[in-house]
Hints:
By secondary structure, the chain is α+β, with helices and mostly antiparallel strands. The protein has 8 helices and 9 strands. It has helices at residues 21-42, 58-69, 73-82, 111-116, 119-130, 132-136, 139-155, 202-239, and strands at residues 15-16, 19-20, 54-57, 100-101, 106-109, 160-169, 172-182, 187-195, 249-257. A 4-stranded mixed β-sheet has the order 6-7-8-9, with helices on both faces.
Amino acid sequence: RSTMEAAFSLPKEWEFSGASIGDLRNFWAALQLLGLAYLMSATRRDAPQWDTLMWLKTEQLCAFVHEATGLDISIARDLLDRHMYDRETVKADIALTPFVASGAGFLVASPELLATSNFERNFYTTLARTSRREVDSQSHLLESSMVDKLRPIFERRGLLVRSSVPYTSSKGSGDIDLLVWSQRERFVIAIELKAFIQPGDHREVINRALQAERALETQLPKYSAALRENLDGILLKAFGLTSEPARHQWSVGLIMRNYV
């Protein structure tokens, strides 16, 4: 199991059109089981000459998913529709949407693609291309998952952590993604968080570099202005601290997940 663990996973709170991440994982658990079973059968010495592709009826596939995982057939059908290859979709990619409609109600898929798919990353990528608003409305969940991972790292070192701390400054207003305070060292750092999915190619890495540059040029100067102009108010709001804020040092930073 450890060798097949997904390198990228969506937060468990993520939802899309009435389905949950648990539904997506159940759906793909059945698909990967089916793909592995097909591949294993094809390697038997007495096996007939197998086609390199699987041919399935839509109803049979949805029924198999239901029997294997208990997933409602209507949800299975909706998820299957979201994984259908559509040549009209911008940047259509068979690795992201592995099912191709064929004649007489059949679906065609590669068992190897099903068995080895990094399906959560692929599904998120597909949503980003076809349902950008749906992705943007829940992007805060990716940052929350980063906070959940970073908080214990800082707290083990005796640091206090607050997330989504509101601020106003001469350069703008908003929320500081992560504010870390060392009471002993009298040091405060405001951190901008950027969560990405794993890059699929070099172009995505270049795009992330541009996003990181944008954060350095726009967001961090706002954090700096807020700490410089109203450090006492921010400390009071975040930690209830009222003593000698002028004696504190501060800095700003950027933490990115899955940058490369």
